[in-house]
Amino acid sequence: MEKDVSWIPEDEWAGVVANSPLVSVDLIVKQDGGVLLGLRENEPAKGEWFVPGGCVLKNERLTEAVHRVAEMELGCEVEICNRLGTFEHFYDTSEVDGVDDKHYVANGFVVEPLQPVDIADNQHSELRVFEPPFEGLHPYVQQYLDRMVWE
Hints:
- This protein is of the alpha+beta class.
- It has helices at residues 10-19, 62-74, 139-147, and strands at 22-31, 34-40, 49-50, 53-55, 78-91, 102-113, 124-130.
- It contains three helices and seven strands; from the N terminus they run H-E-E-E-E-H-E-E-E-H.
- Its cofactor is Mg(2+).
- Residues 18-151 form the Nudix hydrolase domain.
């Protein structure tokens, strides 16, 4: 039996963002001895180097969301290597008109791409691999990197 996995209709999204925390997955993409980050083109964190990520859809498992987000944002399949845990992200900005902030309950997953990675969405203008030591990155990205085990 196939699950009904769906997104919130656009006309209801503002109410959800204004009144509820959003459950999301963030992908810490290991590549070439570092992590792949995208330069964000939309709020929140516009203009920052950030991990790919997205909201979990109704009736979607976290691991299913990881694979969907990888395909949508990076155009590739990924292997999940590790789950870093749950993080709270509070932003003073939002992409929704009339909503001034955004709250995520983000689940961090370390992944490795199984194919070449490329920008597959309009949320990022550029992708770049950042290598340790990591400095000057967004504090939420730094939280993920601080929790990772580097081999």
